[in-house]
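Aim 2 progress. For anthranilate synthase, the working sequence is reproduced below.
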Amino acid sequence: GAADRHPGDRARRRPGGRRRARGGTVVTAGAGSLLRRIADGTHSGPFALLHRPESGAPDRIDVLAGPVDEYETLAGLPLDEPGGDDGFELLALVPHRQIGERGFDHVDDGTPLAGLRITAQESVPLDEVLAALPRSADHPLALRDGGFELDDRRYADTVRRVLDEEIASGAGANFVLRRDYSARLAGWSVPAALAYYGRLLRRTSGQHWTFLVHLGDRTLVGASPERHVSLDEGRAVMNPISGTYRYPEEGPEAEGLLEFLADDKETNELFMVVDEELKMMSAVCADGGRVLGPRLRMMAHIAHTEYFIEGRTALDPREILRRTLLAPTVTGSPLESACSVIARFEPEGRGYYSGVAALVGRRAGERTMDSAILIRTMDIDRAGALRLGVGATLVRDSDPMAEAAETRAKAAGLLAAVAGAADEDVSPPAAKAGHGDRLARLPSVREALVRRNEPLAPFWLTDPGARSTPRPVFGGAPRPDHRRRGPLHGDGRHAAAGAGLRGGGPPVRRGLRAAGAGPRRRRPGPRRSAGPRPREDRHPVRGHRAAPGAGHPVPLRLPGPPGAEPDTGPGPGPPPGAQPGRAARRRPVRLARTGLLLQLVHRGRRHRRDPERPGAPRHGPHRPGRPRRRGARAARTRFLLRAVPSGVGDDQERRPCPGRPAHRPARPARLPTARPGSPGV
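Predicted structure tokens for this construct:
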């Protein structure tokens, strides 16, 4: 069901009469001198103002200052040695191009990895900040020559190309395509930036961070709804957000909100990014993490759905950032394929859009980190040239013009605050968001959120300490060719997704396995096969077997892992981008419940057992004149499938099946399966 607690950090009271906001800032009486110097212009260096209501104190602003340097890699970011004083140490601005550290495609536009080394900091009450900031009437701003670099029609045409050329061909499940709004800000200055930031604080709601970072030659100001990853007391949290409900002119309404929650397209968008971030968390956390949610995030002009993924980790914050670059909610899934698509369809670099702002500090001798994804963020140079990147998540059933409208809605909140009304006014968007919060508490809305979890695997929704220990995937004693006895992954990130399963049982072994000729292609030779042909498939190099084109459901000639328990469930279904019709029909196959997250090799038969003839197959539902399909299959077990480690549910009563060979274990009680049309990883 929906999470009944928010995994975000909270401020806490410490002994000694001082309150430490989580993240390390020491709050003392008389704070605000740094803010006053910034507001009156006597502080001329780089600075940052951060409102972090979810991970800091909701009624305070972090005011930071210090020199800014540029770095080549995340590992080069400077952090103090262990044992230092509590407080913030570094504010890092990570551009999109930093994904090159992971070897993925990108357009190198030269945007630097910047780090503000914090030498002065204070936490100031929100009311005091609003009172100290310059007034809008004294520093008015106006947009000049503003517009999207790609108009709606051209953006929709590009969306169609991505759908037809990439998603329909199986290159990925979803991609985020960006377009930029550019303009010139008349009247731009540092005081004008501070006045604009004050308007954002009054007008926006539901943000993870509302921030202003002044680097000297450029200023980033924005209201990001999405956490990238946070670290506190050894607990890492990611916050995948996807699916967008655009408010009508009169504000959000219950009927429209319920339609949004029941929309398969919006649901699938979120499921796919959760799958991808589970892989990231599995590379960071020993137990792979736990999924909490879903929840609604009501904002000024739009609403999103979200999950939280949390787990324990001992990694350094810099390594956590590297392993979690970049968020699939702003790139796509699979991540490597998404980066390739972005590099080809977005000819200009993304700058800081889809990057990360990370605040690293220390408390009680332990590292802390809070970060926000750099979306809904204006990048403004000294002359007032503005660039605002916005994107939409594309899946196979996306409507190109609707995606264009979504990008406009995402930009609306920031642009509306440029030429704001009087400082004390409460804008209509804020009132709409308040009404949206009331809608989110309706019983019908809460029930709709709970229903979203019905097709999901309970394994990831369960606390790691309460999960049953799965039995080894491979039975018997280890053998010399053990590494070739089961399905393995060609992508190390996919193998890392088994970390949550490793925490409770079998280790992951890397290797290479024959996986067929590729997606949706049949191997030459007889249609049926008695089993694998290891000698024919053996690769000439060190006896390994070749695996060209593996990754999507492909026809294989491999047996199931010894000792794996079969279960009947939905087949792999249509690949990403499949159109309705013959190719999109789901067929029942047999799933070996080994707990592997992504791709599972097994022997499946498309038939049903005849209860009157135990052990004998009969023709299942199929078109007349078409032979039954038998032989090997590959099925992707997913976050949304109930294909979970065999240890989960082991306490269920096992009843023998008539006609089943004695050497095969009885099938456990069948678990509910995913709905047709659910997306894959």
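Residues 40-234+314-428 form a domain with the Anthranilate synthase fold (CATH 3.60.120.10). This observation will guide construct design in the next reporting period.
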